[in-house]
Amino acid sequence: SEEKREQYSERYVWNRVRCSTSSSSLGDPEPHVYEASSMAYRGLIIEGKDQSILVSGETGAGKTETVKILMSHLATFDPTKKQRSLSSSSLSSESFVENCDPSQTPPSPPRKSMNNKYLENINKSNQVVQRVIDANVLLEAFGNAKTPRNDNSSRFSKYTKLQFNLQYFGGATPACELAGSICETFLLEKSRVVTHMPSIGERTFHIFYQLLAAPDEYKASVWSGLSGRDASSFQYVGTPSTNVIENMTDASRWENVYNELKVVGITGDKLSTLMRALCVVLQLGNLVFEANPDNEDGSVITSAEELELLSDILGVSSDEILQSLTVRTVATSRETMQALRNTSNAKETRDALAKEIYAATFDWLVVAINDATCAEKNYKGEEKPEKFGVIALLDLFGFESFENNYFEQLCINHANERLQKKFTEDIFRSVNKEYEFEGIDLSDVVFNDNGDILKLIEGRLGLIDILNEECLRPMGSDSAFVNKIYANNKKVGSPLFSKRGFQSKEFGIHHYAGKVKYDASDIVMKNTDALPPDVINCVVKCNNSIIATKFQQRQNQIDKATTASTLKHLTVWTKFSNQLSKLMDSIAKTNTRYVRCMVPNKEKKPLVTDLRFTATQLHYAGIVSAVTISREAFPEKMDMDTVVERFSFMQSAYGKARHCKDDKSREKVTELLAFLLEDFAESTGDKSPFLCGKTRTYFKDGVLEYLEAKRILAFGLVAMKIQHAFRRRQLKLHSSATIIQCMVRQRNADRALLTARVLHEKDLKEESLRALRQQSSVTTLAKISRFRSFSFRSKEKNKEGMMRRIKQKITVIGMFSKKPKKKKRNINEQKNVD
């Protein structure tokens, strides 16, 4: 989406250029190919160096879609937005943070006059940008086909160089505009023109189905032989399993192709010539060959009507076509004679001609697209630079290993070996650059690469040389090629291997990704890829300019190739190897980034991952080799801060004063690790199991594992010390608690004793008072008894006075003998007392 594009542009391009204080709030977005395109764009505008992104993977992994996403993102960068935003705001010193790269000078504000001029140039280049993006539609139509794994599989590899105008580099805001593009193609699968398997869902190239799905009016205007005919009318196409690719019918795609051809300037006679060249290929497949009834060694074309149609569209008489396909001219030093072709040989010649015509048509289309998109011819800027900046995108077949592998897989894997070497060098270079920054010497580090495999293929008396030799020999054969390569590679450790059960035309190569068995059937014929002179002389006369021009160039090359050394350069593998060398030289001049595409499962099911299949692809992609290289010298690395945080406590665990966490200097970290790895160094004899750089520490194989194991043991020792200290403190606390309890209990006992004494004295007083009260009561009762006995004897006047005094005494005794909690006597008890 546009929002996601803007997010990655802001994070990886503009914010890193300006180092805005608000960039920290954005955070790092999730992994996406937009990161690779953004970083490549930034590298171009800041460093001023060309960039490249290499995309590889198996068929169906999404290489083509990934390249389209990258190209669309790069082509639609909007530098005018930053121009406007920067021109409307002041670039104060506060807008740059400390983490800016000091080697990269922040951009200066754009001048107003230059900004307006820049916007005008952007508007003029919109048409070129549209052409660059839309060119993919044409390349997919002519170069893609349906396979069992992928409905829109690229059957060729391409190297697209996006050209950018860097006229403001080092001046105003660092931005550049897309000025054009150049596309280079190689490894076109020409064999798909004549052979494919409809039974398993395969189709030939899309353009044939799209042309045949066009309206009849248009087909009749191209060639009358197309009118009223469909895919089933042509043997090379056949009845397709489906006419819908990625939710679009062939008829709908034809409309898109027709419109995009107009965009790149292919209209009128050019368009008619292009379509008629495709019709020639279609019509060649309808020729039927049978044995000559007059001569069994010869052959004849029995489909006279189809031959006449071919003669009509090709502009060559039917007799000349028949003669070139069924008779061959053999030239010797003394004389020239003619030999008949049998049916099989005639069919092979026809198929070879069809493949060459389609390859010529495809190459012509690529040239036409480049003419319409290259910056040198189409950029309309007022100030055209001497050199355009380049961001190159490589879409290449991944490493292939099938049940049956042929010459095509050998060439593809050869290209992947070259890319793997570049990948290996980049990985080692990045590791070396990191070590140099950390102050670590890597002069003694040796890593394994795939140089021996490339030597087997490209070296003197390698596979290419031996195959070229067999192609030049009059009686060269596939089995002779296999025998020679084994005879020249008998050394132990050679990447060439053999197993029991290999046939006479089978051989094996141990590639960086694994062992692959190849079938050399028809390898000499495929590498020669030479049309007979009779066929070339016939086709040169045709009225189609695309075909005639291409075959005229080929005839000129053959005429100039008078020596064997010159003829070697015309073989398929030699031409491909030279093209591959130029490609690698071009990539070597750029800063390279890699994108590896993976197929999650073979069934094309969503949200399903086949782990074993994915791991195999990682191995084939060279990821395992890259990890191995990065682990050659010091496999493990750790920041100084992490080392101190993880391992400083181990000093106290093993009987040494603890390292201060605040001291993270190189010397202190070295001292810490030297103490912890003393036993390891003695047991292994390695005196330098680690190296400390400026900011990181690097460990050899097994050292970090030893430290981690020792760290786990240190946890146990430290835990024991902690438990010991805790239990000792617990004992102290228990003893202190016991003493405190004793003191509290003693104080409580003293208080209880004092209270008991006070209470005892109080009880004694109460007992004595109670005794007195009882004694007084007894005395009083005795007196009452005496009074009653006396009352009979006393006079009446004394009786009243005595009773008054007794009542008074009884009242006083009652006051002292009354208890607070004693129940009150009832009336009857009171009467008894009275």
Describe the structure.
The protein is of the alpha+beta class. Helix content is 55%, strand content 11%. It contains 32 helices and 19 strands. The strands form seven sheets. The protein has a five-stranded mixed beta sheet, with helices on both faces. A hairpin with a 7-residue loop joins β8 and β9. α1 packs parallel to α2 and α13 crosses α21. It is elongated, with a radius of gyration of 50 Å. The protein starts with a helix and ends with a helix. About 7% of the residues have low confidence.
In a few lines, what is going on in this structure?
The protein is of the alpha+beta class and 834 residues long. It contains 32 helices and 19 strands. The strands form 7 sheets. It has a 5-stranded mixed β-sheet, sandwiched between helices. A 3-stranded antiparallel β-sheet has the order 13-14-15. Strands 17-19-18 form a 3-stranded antiparallel β-sheet.
Lay out the secondary structure.
Elements: H1 2-18, H2 33-47, E1 51-57, H3 63-75, H4 79-87, H5 112-124, H6 126-143, E2 144-145, E3 153-154, E4 157-165, E5 177-186, H7 206-212, H8 216-222, E6 244-245, E7 248-249, H9 250-263, H10 268-284, E8 289-291, E9 299-301, H11 304-314, H12 318-326, E10 327-331, E11 336-340, H13 343-373, H14 375-378, E12 389-397, H15 407-438, H16 451-458, H17 463-472, H18 478-487, E13 496-497, E14 506-511, E15 514-519, H19 523-528, H20 533-539, H21 545-560, H22 564-568, H23 572-588, E16 591-597, H24 611-620, H25 623-630, E17 636-639, H26 640-647, H27 650-653, H28 666-676, H29 678-684, E18 690-692, E19 696-699, H30 703-791, H31 796-817, H32 827-833
Parallel strand pairs: 1-12, 1-16
Antiparallel strand pairs: 2-3, 4-5, 4-12, 6-7, 8-9, 10-11, 13-14, 14-15, 17-19, 18-19
